[in-house]
Design goal:
The complex is a heterodimer. Chain A is built from 14 helices and four strands. Chain A is mainly alpha-helical. The radius of gyration of chain A is 32 Å and the shape is elongated. In chain B, 63% of the residues lie in helices and 0% in strands. Chain B has 18 helices and no strands. In chain B, α5 runs antiparallel to α7 and α10 crosses α12. Classes of the chains: A mainly alpha, B mainly alpha. At the A-B interface, α12, α13 and α14 of A face α1, α2, α3, α4 and α16 of B.
Chain lengths: 379, 325
């Protein structure tokens, strides 16, 4: 039918689309953390949040479709277990429902700068944010791209490199997650410390003002506003003193960037952007470690595996199967005692010479290449 | 079979036979082979299926008005023209462009004009190429010409000046340079195929005509056959040294039938074994040794069985390995 693409073409386009999405989501994840580190504007961070949601949605749809087709072909379990379907799962729905989905929901529905309930919910999401790190597992699927670059056409090489890469990455991610769930996020500890620090400060100022018979605001305002972390001071009488104009505040600060600290005489909005920045840097460091582990396996271990295992097996396989394939296996001198090369030595020294003898006298392309059917086919 | 004059056949018959041979040549099993092997496949098939083909060719679809022998003649001639058109140019280029004057140094016949030698060598090649037995056995020579094997290996032998160089220059005592040796070896490759013609090895029995495949491989028979092959060839190639012709004829025999001072014969025997069924590889698999190194390595393990000189094989193995051939 004209204008209609064949099935394999559509499949190829979809695969390319997904691979592109994988690369982009990695970039998005890194940018997302970097935006917190560099304290980008709220708008920029929200765009990245929306992009993250879109990617999670795409991967969730992809997982659903793949699940459907694998289930239809009764391959679901083997796909989940052996073809890294589990990676597809943990990097799709959990992120959609626990991270980007709720974040986007609150962004779109909540009043941006008020509501203690939202603050509580956001604290919950900060814990869930630790799951974001699993997104990096998507990298293992880039093996297909790197496989081509590295000429690791061997299915065996691709499988084993994918396995070891997945194991390494998943181990690192598991340790990070374990620490997060057991000891809490560093953000929560540091925020708590900061909160206590400023409660103590406000209470101390209150005590001093009481002891000296001075007005609290009179005593504290200059001191509090000279602290770069104090964004707003809300006095008990409802007076609000702000460090910066409302528009500037709205441009650069959202609920994740400050905490409410309520002392005896006032409530403070205390910036935690420096804490967020530090945490983002730690995440970036973890992501880079994982990315470089993947790259190292893809580049160095692939070469190692191909040279020492799969290339030799490839030649052995052809030599055993094809009558006219008679190339010796290359045996590195320093690895001659490895089992694979001991087998190759037997193949080189015994099998191929015997094969040469066996093929003696058999001319290439015997008359069996032709049959009477080939004659009768002539028109 | 001698070919009759083509003008006894109509243009339509000739065209139809051409189409038929095209059809056979397009068969995957034939197309993937060299022209000489492809011709061999078709001729062998025809010979093995004569009774059925005789009946088939009488069908309207084929050649109902031609005698079986006429069809066969046309098919074989068509095949020959195709193969000679594909194969002979590389040999003709060699003969036309080579300097044979160094052969004067190797024979007692004085100075012979190159033009004369070229004419004689052309006639000789035409003669043996016309002979189906010789032609079918020329595949290795043609491969060696096509892939410039002699140029590569001779250049390397002379550059390295190791075992093979000593054998050729000191032991064989053929004092010629690398370029001349290339020509020398190539002439050997052409002359050696004469042994596939039916010759008369025994003057006492003039009716007995044998080719190399008909003689039993013992030293006495081989000596006698070599002498008659050399004797047969010398008049066909005036101006070409007897030593060269003898070395060429002996390059068809296993090394234990060849004297120690005839390393050229042993070398050509090995190279012909290597390139008899040669297919040029599109690429070498990463985990594999190069094709020539592999072959020389494997042949080295079977040297005694195939009659190859082990030391020459080892030397070729090193050359091939060092050059990734």
């Amino acid at each position: 039918m004209n204008g209609m693409m064949k099935k394999p073409d559509i499949k190829k386009i979809l695969e390319t689309f997904i691979l592109t999405a994988i690369v982009l989501v990695i970039i998005q994840t890194l940018l997302d953390e970097y935006s917190r580190y560099a304290h980008w504007s709220v708008r920029s961070r929200n765009i990245l949040l929306a992009a993250g949601f879109c990617f999670d949605l795409i991967f969730s749809v992809e997982f659903t479709v793949r699940s459907y087709y694998n289930n239809r072909e009764k391959k679901f379990i083997s796909w989940i277990k052996y073809e890294r379907g589990w990676v597809d799962f943990i990097s799709s729905f959990p992120l959609l429902f626990l991270d980007s989905g709720p974040s986007l929901f609150f962004l779109l529905t909540a009043d941006a700068h008020s509501g203690a309930g939202i603050v509580g919910a956001m604290n919950l999401f900060k814990v869930v944010k630790a799951v974001r790190i699993t997104r990096i597992l998507r990298l293992v699927r880039i093996l297909k791209i790197f496989g081509k670059i590295q000429s690791a056409e061997s299915k065996m090489a691709q499988h084993h490199i994918a396995t070891i890469t997945t194991t390494a990455v998943f181990t690192v991610v598991s340790v990070l997650l374990l620490f997060t769930f057991v000891f809490g996020t560093p953000a929560s500890h540091l925020s708590k410390d900061r909160s206590e620090e400023y409660i103590n400060l406000v209470d101390s100022l209150k005590r001093i003002s009481d002891m000296n018979g001075l007005g609290f605001r009179e005593l504290s305002e200059v001191i509090l506003l000279s602290d770069k972390n104090v964004l707003k001071v809300i006095y008990q009488n409802g007076t609000v003193v702000e460090r910066m104009a409302g528009s500037e505040f709205a441009e650069y600060y959202d609920e994740e960037d400050y905490i409410y600290v309520t002392g005896k005489a006032c409530t403070l909005l205390v910036s935690i952007t420096d804490i967020n920045s530090e945490i983002a840097l730690q995440y970036l460091q973890s992501f880079m470690i994982i990315i470089f582990i993947v790259l190292a396996f893809m580049i160095f271990y692939t070469r190692h595996f191909v040279q020492n295992i799969s290339d030799a097996v490839y030649v052995l396989n052809l030599g055993f199967r094809k009558k006219d394939y008679n190339l010796l296996v290359k045996i590195p001198e320093d690895k001659a005692d490895h089992e694979i090369f001991r087998l190759a030595k037997f193949y080189n020294d015994a099998y191929l010479p015997a094969k040469m003898k066996r093929n003696e006298g058999s001319e290439p392309g015997s008359s069996k290449s032709l049959s009477m059917k080939d004659i009768i086919d002539f028109k | 079979m001698e070919f009759s004059e083509r003008n006894s056949f109509s243009e339509t018959d000739i065209n139809k036979v051409n189409d038929f041979v095209n059809h056979l040549m397009s068969n995957p099993g034939v197309r993937s082979e060299s022209p000489l092997i492809g011709e061999g496949i078709i001729v062998n098939f025809i010979m093995q299926n004569l009774p059925q083909l005789k009946v088939t060719f009488k069908n309207n679809q084929f050649f109902p008005h031609l005698e079986w022998s006429q069809v066969l003649e046309l098919v074989l001639e068509n095949l020959y023209e195709r193969v000679s058109g594909a194969v002979l140019p590389v040999i003709n280029r060699f003969i036309d462009n080579s300097d044979f004057s160094f052969l004067d140094k190797l024979s007692d016949s004085g100075t012979v004009a190159d033009k004369f030698r070229r004419e004689k060598l052309h006639e000789f090649v035409q003669m043996i190429f016309r002979n189906r037995g010789c032609r079918f056995n020329m595949n290795s020579s043609i491969n060696i010409f096509n892939y410039e094997v002699i140029e590569k290996y001779t250049g390397e032998i002379f550059r390295r000046r190791e075992f093979l160089y000593n054998e050729l220059v000191m032991v064989q005592k053929t004092g010629i340079d690398s370029g001349e040796y290339i020509t020398f070896f190539k002439i050997m490759l052409l002359v050696k195929n004469v042994v596939f013609m039916k010759l008369q090895p025994d003057s006492d029995n003039p009716d007995a005509r044998l080719c190399i495949n008909d003689i039993s491989r013992n030293r006495k028979n081989i000596q006698s056959f070599t002498d008659s092959a050399v004797k047969f060839t010398i008049p066909l190639l005036p101006g070409f040294p007897e030593k060269l012709i003898r070395l060429a004829v002996k390059s068809n025999f296993a090394s234990d039938m060849i004297e120690d001072d005839e390393p050229s014969s042993k070398l050509i025997f090995i190279l012909c074994g290597r390139f008899q069924n040669y297919k040029h590889p599109a690429k070498i698999d990463r985990g594999a040794e190069s094709p020539d190194k592999s072959w020389f390595g494997i042949a080295g393990k079977n040297a005694e069985h195939f009659g190859y000189d082990r030391r020459i094989l080892d030397a070729l193995y090193l050359i091939a390995g060092d050059n990734n051939w």
